[in-house]
Structures are given as C-alpha cells and as structure tokens.
Amino acid sequence: MAKLKVGVLGATGMVGQNYVRLLENHPWFEVSFVAASEKSAGKKYADSVAGRWHMPTGIPNAVQGLMVEDANKVDKAVGRCDFVFSAMEMDKQVVRDLENEYAAAGIPVLSNSSAHRWTEDVPMIIPEINPQHLDIIPVQKKNHGWKKGFVVVKPNCSLQSYLTPVYALIKAGYDVDRMILTTLQAVSGAGYPGVASLDIVDNIIPYIGGEEEKSEKEPLKILGRIEGGKFVNSDSIRISAHCNRVPVVDGHTACVSVGFSGRKPALEEVLRIWREFRALPQELDLPSAPKQPIIYLPEANRPQPRKDRDADKAMAVSIGRLRQCNVFDIRFVGLSHNTVRGAAGGGILNAELAYKKKLL
Amino acid sequence: MAKLKVGVLGATGMVGQNYVRLLENHPWFEVSFVAASEKSAGKKYADSVAGRWHMPTGIPNAVQGLMVEDANKVDKAVGRCDFVFSAMEMDKQVVRDLENEYAAAGIPVLSNSSAHRWTEDVPMIIPEINPQHLDIIPVQKKNHGWKKGFVVVKPNCSLQSYLTPVYALIKAGYDVDRMILTTLQAVSGAGYPGVASLDIVDNIIPYIGGEEEKSEKEPLKILGRIEGGKFVNSDSIRISAHCNRVPVVDGHTACVSVGFSGRKPALEEVLRIWREFRALPQELDLPSAPKQPIIYLPEANRPQPRKDRDADKAMAVSIGRLRQCNVFDIRFVGLSHNTVRGAAGGGILNAELAYKKKLL
Amino acid sequence: MAKLKVGVLGATGMVGQNYVRLLENHPWFEVSFVAASEKSAGKKYADSVAGRWHMPTGIPNAVQGLMVEDANKVDKAVGRCDFVFSAMEMDKQVVRDLENEYAAAGIPVLSNSSAHRWTEDVPMIIPEINPQHLDIIPVQKKNHGWKKGFVVVKPNCSLQSYLTPVYALIKAGYDVDRMILTTLQAVSGAGYPGVASLDIVDNIIPYIGGEEEKSEKEPLKILGRIEGGKFVNSDSIRISAHCNRVPVVDGHTACVSVGFSGRKPALEEVLRIWREFRALPQELDLPSAPKQPIIYLPEANRPQPRKDRDADKAMAVSIGRLRQCNVFDIRFVGLSHNTVRGAAGGGILNAELAYKKKLL
Amino acid sequence: MAKLKVGVLGATGMVGQNYVRLLENHPWFEVSFVAASEKSAGKKYADSVAGRWHMPTGIPNAVQGLMVEDANKVDKAVGRCDFVFSAMEMDKQVVRDLENEYAAAGIPVLSNSSAHRWTEDVPMIIPEINPQHLDIIPVQKKNHGWKKGFVVVKPNCSLQSYLTPVYALIKAGYDVDRMILTTLQAVSGAGYPGVASLDIVDNIIPYIGGEEEKSEKEPLKILGRIEGGKFVNSDSIRISAHCNRVPVVDGHTACVSVGFSGRKPALEEVLRIWREFRALPQELDLPSAPKQPIIYLPEANRPQPRKDRDADKAMAVSIGRLRQCNVFDIRFVGLSHNTVRGAAGGGILNAELAYKKKLL
Asked: Is B85 within 8 Å of B351 (Cβ atoms)?
C-alpha cells in the first residue's frame, strides 16, 4: 500500500517537531510537505530547526531535506499532501481562516490548535471517547460547500490525564456530575522558549493563562452530542480546575476528586472498569493506539511523570492512588504525556481514526 | 529583663537547626541547652552538626560550643532550661513518654512532633486561630499531677497555607463546610536526607505518607472546642486533601476549593476579610508574629514558593488567585514557609503566646 | 550628612532591580531617579515592574512612586542625581555613547555594562584588586573635556569567584602564570526571561555566548597597569575558561587549576594568605565591603551555591577544596553571588570607593 | 543458537536493574539467575524491587518470577549461569573475595565494581581502547589455578566521556601528555537513594568522594601495557580532575583541556580522527556497540545531557565545542550516559567482546 502523503503546518515549532518525529516509520502516513511562518520558508527543514530541534531522536532523514514552505500559501500544499496536521502558533482568527482555506482547497485538516475548538460544526475528538462525533463531517462539508476537505481538532493537552478515566466510569453507567481537580503541568506544554528558568527552578507557578477555562469547558463538548447539525454541550457535569506549572520536562499530572449523582461504584468496581476499558482505537487496532488505554499502577506513590509518562509509546494514561474522597466520592491521580498523547500523538490517532472511517 | 533559658530537644535535626537559627537574637528567649540522640551526646554542638548544617546562616556563636546532651536523660535539662522545644524524630510512643517526662520534671514542652497531637488534653495551637485552647493547660496539669510542666503541640506543616485564610472567613461569620485541596510541598518537609534526588529531578511524587490524613483531621481539632476537659472536634467541616512532593526547597503551596453551608461572601468581601484579619499574636505584638497574617497578592501568577515564602520573616501566609469555584463557592492558592511558619517559627510563636499568658 | 542622590539607568531590568533593592537603606546613597527604555518611560516605577519584579524583598517604598524617565534623555537626569549606575541592556555602541553623554553632562557613571570595558581610558575595577586604576580618571576627563563626569566600569560577573583569590596569591609575591578553569553559572546571569526552562531542567548547557572570552581577557586589564594615560594589559598570565550554565538560581561556581612561574606556596601558606587577605575596601570600611573578602570553608564538599552564595551580604567570595593539582600547582573551588557581588553589589562597592576617593 | 545463561549479582540495586533491563531481548545472553544481599534472598525478583524499580521500562517478564538468591552463596550459581555480571555494593574486600570465589567455581565474572580494578592481573577494559588487555586472562587463570572462571572489570563511570576521544588522538599518533578536566556528573551515578534532594535542588556539589582519584588514575592502567604478567601503568600522561554533582538525572559531561608533547593536530584533523574512529567492537559488530563510537555535534551549545545522552542506544560518546585552548593545545566537551555506557551497558559490551574472543 502506498502511504498517504502528509503535510505538517507549523512544522518548526515544538508540536510540529513532535509530528515530524512521531510520523517517522508510520505504517500509513509519510511526511511529504512541511510549512511554517514566512521567515522559515525557503530553507531546508534541517536548517530551519538548527539549534532548536528539541526531540530526543535526530531529524528523520526523509524530512531533513524538505524545503519549508510558507504556511500562508495554501496552493503550495495542493497536490503534495493528502491531508495536513496543523500546529500553527498564530493569532486564532488567522489560524481559523487558514485551516478553512486548506479545507476549501480539498485538504483535510487534523488540528492541534485551539482555534476551531468551539466552532459549532467542528468535532473535538479523543478517539477513545467520542469517535462518533466524526459523524458531523458531512454536515460541516455541506455548510461550507467543501468537497473533500474538512477540519477536525483535538482538545487541550491538560485533559488527557483525567477525562478518559472519568469517561470510562460514565460509559459503565455511573453518572459523574462534579469534579474538582488540580494539575501539575510540564514546562514543555508552554512551547519553546516558553517558561523562563528563573520562574521554575526551586519554584512552581500556580497559574497558566487560559488553561483552567479549557480544562473545565472542553470536556463538556467532548461529552456532548450532535443536535440539529451542531454540537450541544453536556450539561450533566461541572468541573473546577486549578492549573499549575511545575519543574518537569514532559508529563501532566492531575489530582482528581469525583462525585456521582446516582449510584456510586465500589473502588474494586472502578479498578475493574479501568482495567477492562477498551474503545474504538483498540478495536480497530490503530497503529498509535495504546493496547490498554488506562494503566492502573498499584504502588502508593505512582504515577510519576518521569517514570510513567512513556507508558505504551507515551499514549496510555497512567492512573494511581484510587481512594475514597472525604467530600465527593472517589479520588485518584492521573498522568499523561502532554506532547505525545496530549498533542502530536493524539493528533495522529485522530488521523488514523479518520482514515479507518474512510474520511482521508 | 533576663531572657528565659530554652532547651532544644532534637537540636541536630532539620527542625532543631531551625529552632537554633531562629532563636538567635530572640528578645525573650536564649538557647542554653541542646539535646539529641545518644550518639550525638557528648560532642560540641558545632561538631555534631558538622557537614550537615543546612541553615542559610552560620551556627550562632552562643550555641556552637554547647555540649550536646542525650535527650533521653531528662535530669540533664533540670535547672538548665525554663522550657524546651521538642523536635525529636523518634518512635511516637517514645516521644510521647519523653515529652511527658520533661513535663513531669517541671519543664514545659512546646512540641513540633506529631506524637501528642491527638492526646485529648494536649492543645494543638495555631496562635492566630485557637489561642483559647491553652485554657486546657490547668486541666492537663491536674490530670498528670504536674506542677509547672505541660505539653503544647503545633500541627503539621501542611496546614498553615490554607487553614488561617479559611479560619478568617469562619471568624467573619461564613460557615465553611467543605474543602477540597491539593498541596505542592517542598522537599525540606521530609527532613534530611529525606527525598532522594532521583525521585524529584524532572519529577513530582503524588504521595506523602500520612500527610493527607493529617491535613484532613488536624484542622478539626484546631477548629474544635474544649468540653468536659477534653477536646471535641469540629463536625461542621469536611476536608479532602491530595498531597504532592515537588522540586522546591522551601514553601508549601495549596490549591483550595471552599464551599459554604449558609450565606456566601462576595469575592470583594473575602479580600476585605483577609486584608483586615488580625488576631491575638498581632494584638499582643508577639516578636515572631507577622504584622499582617494573611497577605493577598493581586498578580495573576502568585503566590510562588521561591518568591513569596519569606514574606514577613517567613511567618505570613501569602494568598492569591481568589476566584469563583465552578463546583464549590470560592477557590484560591495559599503558600507558607514550611520549616519556619510550619515548624520552628510556629513553635516559637506558640512559646511567645504561652509566655504572654504567663504559662512560662 | 545628606545622602548623595543616585540615578539608576536600566532600572527595570534584573540588574537595575538589584541596584534598587540593594540601595534601600544605604548610608550614603539614595535612589532619586530611575530611567529605562522609552516604552517604560512615563509610568510609576512600581507599575513598570509589575509582574516582573524578581527580587526576594518588595519594591522599596521610596522608589515605588518615582516616575520612570527615558534613559535616552540625559537632560532629565541633570540636577536630579549626583551620579548614576548604568545597567542598560542595549546595543553596545548605543550604551557607550549614552554613558559618555551622561559624563559630558557632569554626571559620573558607574557602569555594569560591558560597553566601555575595553575603552582605553576607562578603568575596570574590582575594589579589592585594582583600586589604583581610578587614578586614570583625571586623564579620562581631560581626554573628553569633562569637568565632573567620568565613566568607571566593573568586569563580567563570572570573574569574581576566582580572580580575587588568585590576586591574593599574586599580591603575596607568588607569580601565577597560567590558569585553566571551568565555571558552573547560575541562570540569573542570563537575565529575564533568559534561559528557557526546557534547556535547563534535567540538563546543563556547556556554552554561554561571549562568556569565555570575557573570563579570559578581562583579568588581564584588571591585573594590568596605566602607561602613557592608557591601560596596558598584564602579559604574565594565560587563562583558559570553560563556561557552563547549570540549574542554579544564583551563584557562580568555578573549578580552578593554577600554575606558578617561580616559587610555589605550600597549601598552608595559601590558606594563610587567603585568611589574612584584606584590601582597600576593608581598610576604608566601605559599607558594602565584606569584612573578610575571601572565606575558606574547610568542609570537603563546599562551597555550594545555595548554601554559601549569601555569605557576608552576598559580597564575600567563598572558597574550598584547596589541594595540589596533578598538572599545575594548586586547584580550588570558588563561588560568588553573580547578581550581587558580580553585578549591582560590585557596582555599589565601586561607587563607595569613588566616593571615598572624593570623585563623587 | 542457544543463548548463554547469565547471572546478575547485586541485581536489585541501580546498576543491577540496568543489567536486567538492558539484557532483555539480548541476542546472545539471557538472565537466568539473580542474586543480592541476604535480606532480599528468597523473594521473587519483582517483589524484591517493588517500590524501588527505577528503570524507564517495566521489569522484563522473564526475570519477574526468578527467585533472588543470596549472592554470598556461590554454589547456588553453579550450573545455572555461564557467567555473571557483578554489581554488588559491599565492602571492597568482601566483593574481591566473592568475585574470586565465583571465578574459582568456574564462573567468569564481568564486574562493574571497583574492587578488582587495581588487582595486578585483572584487566580493566573499555572495548574501544584496550581489548588486547584480555590477553592477561590465561595468566590470571594460571595464577589462581582457575580452569574456566576469571575476572574482568570496567572502569569508573566518569571516564567514558573523555577517555575515548583522547585515546582516538593517541591512536592516531598524537602524544597527549596532560589533561585538566572538570566533570558535571548526574545524580544517578550515586545510586539510590544517593544524593539528597536538599543538596541538589537549586545547587551543585563540587565534590564526589573518591571520584577525582579514579578519574585521574584509572586511565593510566587502561592506557598501560602488560609486562611480566602484570599491568604497568602508562607514565606518559598526567591528569587533573575536578568532579562535580549537578541536578541532572543521567549523563556525565566533561570540560576537557588537552596538551600534546610532540606535534599537535589541527582542529580539522582532530574532527577527522574522531569522525573516522572505529575500533574492535565496531569491527566485530558487537550487538551493544555504537555504530560510531564518537559523535561530534557541530552546534555551539552541545552536547547537553538530556538531549544527547541516549545517542546510539546510549552507548556513543557525544562531543562538541572543539576549540583551541589558551593554555594547553585543544579543548572540548564530552558526554556519555553514566548508567548505560558508563555502567551496565559497558559491562555488557565487555561480555560481548569476551564472548567473541571465546573466553565465555
């Protein structure tokens, strides 16, 4: 089988580099096109990231020599890629317009950007939770008069550590109606240069601009439904998030208290639900899907970011410390790799799902 | 005025060193006696801490040459100190028995240990919150037949960052009935050698043995009352605590969500209450008391441990990020210095209070 | 005595903030004028540094309300300050020209900038080493036709940890002719935002742009002499420096191997020389001078930045680990506080020296 | 081919865990025997390391269920392993005696311990440098009357970052006669719990007990020769080492100045020598050998431990910053992974070499 040709928009940034890295040797996709801001355009990819390649492995050979294009010039991509990953770091309105332009040009867009997360006909997907939200794509295409192109987004990197385990309980029939959670987030989440070292050596920062709002609202769309060709948020759950930056390179941790409105599962039942949880990516055996989406660690002091973030290609969510909550019903600690599961890896899993659903 | 002569039990450990450091130049007290485990006994203090003095300033001259005594030999202290600070790190039953022995020998004990925190006639004091709990001392003395000695303890270091601001609201007439909080605690809280660097570089640990239980239960005694010569816990509040270790040297941070059972204060009202909060230590102008017990920082990203832990001699609680909570009523971030306000400094403030109340 | 009125140019940057902090309560000087870039001009100082005040203590009351001036408008300073500290972070040629303008306007300039370090009639001073280099000031004034103004600079922050102890040996008659040294430098040396956290968490950077050249060449001018109204570098010593950035907030450490061309001191002799070393700042009892410029720590594992950087108001150099070198003659570890001794504190000491020499 | 059965002595410690991890899926060897101290004996391996397994991947399935034996009982190993890796952390004399016992029992010992490094008939091997030192094995066997057993050791973990690149120059005919170097060593080098976090957060420690002596002397044996059945040290080179502990998890960095006694290579020549350097492990295509033993990174700020330590299975040495030295001739920065190349990985490479030389 010939691999699909893939473009990466914003290919020189941190998330873009992760796309380039994770797509090396992908069984279905190959990077054939890289684009970035105007000032990077016209250089070879290897030159454009010289001195700021932050990945643990080298630049893939097949990408080193690709000429970087100006991401604003959509026509450059036409004919050169079957779809694109968007990791552009620009003004949201500009990103929205550009992503639409790519879609209009017949190029599906799998986006990591927050620009289109609240567009009413754009699905925000975590493949283990709401793969059925891809059903809106025909509506979206029709709304815009697009033939082949469309836009799919993924949510913010902070959600992955707690939403999948909570969704597993909901899916098993337990109605979660409230959550209070505190995140301890890695510095890589802020990109590069991102957080200044003077702010994080011997320190934590109890604030990340916009992060709490995303952590509280995006789950409502993901847990919501399509009605009249639009997404309608879930109204059955309230979330309060406290987001902190900590001196950790990769891996977002969340301390989560959860309350149920109806019957409450015993702790053993929760463990069973998590252990047995499988979803569409596992059924379809998608190449980037973790074998077991939720891994429960029985040790008292786990999960820990440096030790557990890489579980199952950094795509699994590691969970620990399940116990009764004195105020709500249960509490636990969740962890996921923010730049893999929470960013480029999650985007690739979305693309694999779309491919299997014959959208690509 | 001649200064009171003070002994420090456990003087060579981290908390003991902080007592020695903070009592240098104290206007009322002077260290005249240091005791530790049997194996340190017989050495000069300076020699016994050589290579493991962790304070930012040098060993006070007046203490360097003191001979370290065996803390198990209570008679060594008799006649040499008017009272002692206890920072012994031993089996709890042993500490309890030893603290009783000192009290029986006529030497009041101001303890940092958790040994006596749940003894029914021992008060657990935060001077800004429950100074009236010292009223149990005559009962305690009578129970044991002690003439001059008694035991007073302070709570765990994790409480100071959130309990004083919450108490200020209670005192102002708002009934707090539930709290969910997550702490990000400094490595100094684990003593020395304490946390291994392999567990904390590029990492956090989402577990501290026994800490969540202390954080949840000790406030109930502090907010409780004396009844029939015993302490009765407050039953009006439930607390759920998630405790984490982070790569910070000093300063415990807490992210706190708070719910009220009756009327709820507006955010401006909360700020006014905190700004105007003063208590007995401030009225008595105790030497170690912060001028303003609760300092609210208006910047969006404060308090931060490295930048704010030293506020007002490291004895003030720094607060920030007051905002509505989506699930409870309000939420905020609190910070206090764990080895000063949360340990030796808090113990000294207890002693100053006891002195003014003519118990020493 | 009325205090001298002092201006701080570049007052909103990291070094400028340190000047403002360290001059609070100075016995001779008081900050009466603050200037920065055009975009900060017109704001109150407190507002201009809001959210980026990095000092451990609050903004001094007397400075909070000062209006920030545009440092490019020299006439604003005339009549409002007796001299200025320059900590401007701009293009070197621009700084050079501006510092000259201030001097031409009758305002002496004590500079932290590297702009004038190699100007042939500008002295680069470490007060314990080459206070006599101030003798060039009359020549400098004459060269420019300046009446009252002049320019004095201090060297790079990396030198303080090793040059004073080496100079003490030279002063005692031992001819040091070669040094190989490796520095481990704190992130505060790069200013704010400076080093990205992704570059320094679980990492070190073995390169600091321009730092090795400064570390190798500036000592030659400091150890040089005035000849024919110009500075002539010392040609008796060669230095090779390896400069690294490490995850430390403040405090530059240097591992130093030293060779002598003639007779070699015994280790005990070196210790005696360091212990007894005093210089003009100590003789004049300058307010910011450390009582003992070089403090030798006998413990095997000292000096350490977090534990020793604050020695004697952060103005002393802490030394340890003196031992024979297998290749040269002796080796040792030196440490000094880079933003105090190595920057603002060093600049203030220069001003105190100039004042005592009646230049201000 | 049936795999050789391998024992790991000290299998529960940090180095032992690395052996277990790195031998998973080894093409020639399989772990069939694990031994540790008496108190671990009798437990399953998975249980004996529960809560202190520090590897980034899980415990290999094949090892989880192995019963841990008492390493002092040599007869337990007889018949169960073809050779052993020794990573025992005990008194040196005890280790020496035990390693001899295993050899006497017919079991070759590939040791990571420092116990036998200076035994006159025990070779200390870096396979790229002195594979010919294995020629002493027949002498060693004869000295002891051993039939099949023998002892081979590897050097200290600090040497790998600088000795191979320096050896490459010697091999190319340039006589290195002096080196001054400073290491910045990772905390994993101290084992677990090892360095206390209070000593390393916002800090460095300019001292590692015994490390400088090892760094200075062990190269002399490695570069030495066999004469009269004993090792004679090289006397052509003098080394001075400054060893520091820094807040890095894995990866030792060294800043190195090198002098030549005879002709001096141009910098381009040095780069060519390093680029082209290959040795016996590469010729034999040993499974753990890096394809290119020395990787030169042209970026100004490399190598960096977090970014470069894993180069080529963490077995390559990464080099950068080659430049002229002001005092000696050249200088550079070297980096290698201390727990892989510098410990278990290096030991495995020794075993692979011994296997190809038909000693196992």
From this structure: yes
Take residue C26 and report the two structure tokens written for it: 């100075």
Using a CB–CB cutoff of 8 Å, tell me whether B298 touches chain C: no
d(CA A342, CA A354): 18
Q: Would you tell me how many other CB atoms lie within 10 Å of the CB of residue D44? A: 15
Name the burial class of residue B91, with classes exposed (0-12), middle (13-18) and buried (19+) by CB atoms within 10 angstroms of its CB: exposed
The whole-number pLDDT of residue B225 equals 97
Nearest-by-Cβ selection for A202 from D50, D201, D300: D201
Are the beta carbons of B31 and B62 closer than 8 angstroms? yes
E-strand spans in C105-234?
Answer: 109-111, 151-153, 176-185, 225-227, 230-232
CATH no. for D160-337:
3.30.360.10
User: Cis omega before residue C303 (within 30°)?
Assistant: yes
Nearest alpha carbon to residue B196 among D250, A305, D201: D201
DSSP 8-state secondary structure symbol assigned to residue C49: T
Rounded Cα–Cα distance for residues C162 and C238 (Å): 14
Enumerate the β-bridge partners of residue A294: A317
Chains with 3 or more CB pairs closer than 8 angstroms to A?
B, C, D
Q: What is the pLDDT of residue D96?
A: 97
Minimal CA–CA distance to A37: which of A63, A12, A2?
Answer: A12
Q: Which residues from D are below 8 Å from B187, CB to CB?
A: 197-198, 201
Q: Whole-angstrom Cα distance, residue A72 to residue D329?
A: 51
- Closest residue, chain D, to A302 (C-alpha): D51
C138 touches chain A (CB under 8 A): no
Residues contacting residue D84 through CB under 8 Å, at least 6 positions apart: D6, D7, D8, D9, D33, D77, D102, D107, D108, D109, D110
Domain limits, chain A: 4-156+344-356, 160-337
Would you state the structure tokens that stand for residue C235, as one six-digit string?
A: 């040609």
Q: Is A252 a catalytic residue?
A: yes
Distance from C-alpha of A340 to C-alpha of A336, rounded to nearest angstrom: 8
Nearest to A55 by CA among A43, A66, A46: A46
Q: Which CATH number fits domain C4-156+344-356: 3.40.640.10, 3.20.20.70, 3.40.50.720, 2.60.200.30?
A: 3.40.50.720
Pairing mode of beta strands B83-86, A238-245: unpaired
User: Which tokens go with C63?
Assistant: 């400075």
Encoded tokens for C298: 């006998």
Rounded to 10 degrees, the C-alpha dihedral C14/C19/C24/C26 comes to 160
Q: How far apart are alpha carbons A305 and A135 in whole angstroms?
A: 35
Phi (first) and psi of residue C98, to 5 degrees: -65, -45
| Average pLDDT per consecutive 10 residues, chain B (360 residues; last block may be shorter) | 94 95 97 95 94 88 96 96 95 96 98 97 98 98 98 95 97 98 97 95 98 98 97 97 98 98 97 98 98 96 96 97 98 97 97 97
Q: How far is CA D316 from CA C286, D24, D295, D337, in A?
A: 54, 20, 7, 8
Across the beta sheet with B252-260, what order do the strands follow? B238-245, B176-185, B252-260, B330-336, B317-324, B294-297
pLDDT of residue B51: 82
Q: Looking at this predicted complex, what is its ipTM?
A: 0.95
Residue listed under structure tokens 């990231």: A49
Over chain A, what is the mean pLDDT? 96
Whole-angstrom distance, CA of residue C174 vs CA of residue C273: 11
Residues C45 and C47: their CA atoms lie apart, in Å, by: 5
Which residues of chain D have a pLDDT value below 50? none
State the first-to-last Cα distance of chain D, in angstroms, to the nearest integer: 14
- The shares of helix, strand and coil residues in chain B, as percent rounded to the nearest 5, are 30, 25, 45
Sort out which chain B residues have CB atoms less than 8 A from D202's CB and list them.
Answer: 249
